[in-house]
Amino acid sequence: REWLKKGTVDCNHVLLILEAEMAVLKGEKELAKQKYDAAITISARNGFVHDRALANERAGKYMLQSGDKYFAFHYLSVAIQLYSRWGAKAKAEHLLSKHKILLNEDHTPVINKTIERRWSLL
User: Fold this and answer.
1) Residue 122 and residue 87 in contact, taking contact as beta carbons nearer than 8 Å
2) 3-class SS of residue 109
3) Smallest Cα–Cα separation from 93: which of 75, 73, 111?
4) 84-105 as b/e, with b when 16 or more CB fall inside 10 Å?
5) CA-to-CA distance for 119 and 45, rounded, in angstroms?
6) Between the CA of residue 30 and those of 22, 24, 37, 57, 60, what are the distances in Å?
7) Contact 116, 96 (CB under 8 A)
8) Phi, psi at residue 102, to the nearest 5°?
9) pLDDT tens per residue, the chain (122 residues)?
10) Helices 29-45 and 49-65, axial angle in degrees (round to 10)
11) By three-state DSSP, how is residue 47 classified?
12) CA 78 to the chain's CA centroid
């Protein structure tokens, strides 16, 4: 928070991820979701693809743990695409294989094509 007061705004998204994690620990689902969403928005606005991927991953895992499969699918799918865009193919594939049941056969080919397309551009 001190860095934010001094004008170092490029760490605000990290603070929001930490605040979301604290809300998770306290069982405050709506606050956690709001903090994750704010972190995702700010990291996207400032071009932090890896942090945006991390915030989506953490939000997805929390939503899955909370039983909200709809939002879990959304966040984890975006995380996989962002990790792929960032160049972390192994991380994207790890998430894809870890959450195969959630990311069922109907959606997996779309995500795999996105990963393959990103890597073909490199």
Assistant:
1) yes
2) helix
3) 111
4) bbbebeebbbebbeebeeebee
5) 24
6) 12, 9, 10, 17, 14
7) no
8) -70, -45
9) 555 555 555 778 899 999 999 999 999 999 999 999 999 999 999 899 999 999 999 999 999 999 888 899 999 999 999 999 999 999 999 998 888 777 664 555 445 555 555 455 44
10) 160
11) coil
12) 6
Residue type for position 9 = V
- Answer for the pair 92, 77: CB distance below 8 angstroms, yes or no: no
CA distance 17 to 119: 28
Instruction: Supply the angle between the helices 69-86 and 108-120 in degrees, to the nearest 10.
Output: 10
CB contact at 8 A, 29 and 66: yes
